[in-house]
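Hi support team,

I submitted a single chain yesterday and got back a structure, but I'm not sure I'm reading the token output correctly. Could someone confirm the output below corresponds to the sequence I sent? I've pasted both exactly as they appear in my results page.

Thanks,
R.
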Amino acid sequence: MATVQEISIYLDGLLPALGINKKRELLRLIYEISKRDGKSPVDVLPAEKNLNFERAKKQLLLKRYPTSFSTAPKSAFYLPKLELDPAQRADLTPRPFYPQYIYIEESVCESGLARRAREKFPKAQFPSWDGKEMVGSDNFSRRTDTLVIHREKYDFLKPCPCSSGNAGCGYNLINLGFGCRFECEYCFLQQYQNLHAILLPANVQDFLDKIDGASFRKGPFDRPRIGSGEFTDSLVFDELTQYSAQIVPFFRARPHLQFEFKTKSVCIEGLLAQGGAENVVVSWSVNAAQFIERVEHFTPSLPQRLAAAASVAQAGYRLGFHFDPVVPFAGWKEAYAQAAEQIAQSVPVDKVAWISVGLLRFSRELKKAVENRFPDNSILDGEFLLEFDGKMRYPESLRQEAYAYFVPLLRKLFPKAVVYVCMEKAGMCPLA
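Hi R., thanks for writing in. Yes, this is the structure output for that exact sequence:
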């Protein structure tokens, strides 16, 4: 892969009269093609007679977007300025979760969560905190160095923020935490989270108090579905938070509702201690095994997740699975089919309540974050276009092909489960 400097020098010699903006576009295109194909700048854009900006850009767009160049509007090709900062590269050194600094809001300093934090992390520093001071690291990779235990006052219960134009699934959210210890290369938090720390609310009962009497969307399910896990993994910190100890009995007593823990972790001890509940669904984000190993850093493997799923199913919980994000790669159909079959062989199929499928999509801002934190990534090599909702998405033809292949397979393997597509345009794939 050519460096930005190498490409810049090459362009200066090839097309010396380029303006700043035109050079920026060509530089990005050459960089992305060079990175994807392992070619030098001269191989990506050879010198030729009468070469100018327009011809160069057309050639490069055709190479970068071979399947969508002739059909996508030119505005769909997103070519921002390439700004790579080596200081932002993700730190993938394995390390346990042990915060160096723990800030506890005064109003919850005597809470069970605060007490457990003091007991579990005795070597941490506990600075005084007024609840307003900005804390955390400047580096997203160091976010787990700081733990904030606070009282949530506002963000208790809300509908899932599905983008305009997408077919919603009726999901309802409670946000029990902000920040995660995993390092998934596609995670939106690396662009979205401006406080680089782990935030955990100590007042879970206040969240639960909002449930009774609230009105909920139901979507394609037999009853309203409420869940956590929008801004954090639902279970990765459960040994510390013990949220499951409050949530499971609360919803067990309300069979007209159902609650979902959404996780990649295998932190299920709290769930097992509470015993099962038919209306509590423990769901795992899953993917092709090689994708997990390459892209979802610090997370348990697929077999480890499925072993945990089998244990909670045996305890009396129902299960869910989320194939999200699906990322087409060489041999992807076989790899994802193998993962689906592995699930069907590992857990009781009749215990699976739902399965979602969603191809990789992301905000345009996330593209730069991934480039900087994971410069060797392959997930950005696909043909991503600015789509109907302002997100970067694969071409519609590829998304249709993926859903047409994968959704029927899942419905065959899991005939009693609701199989649906997540955050996709209406009509792309039926929910029922």
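A quick pointer for reading it: The first strand starts at residue 101 and ends at 104. Let us know if anything else looks off.

Best,
Support desk
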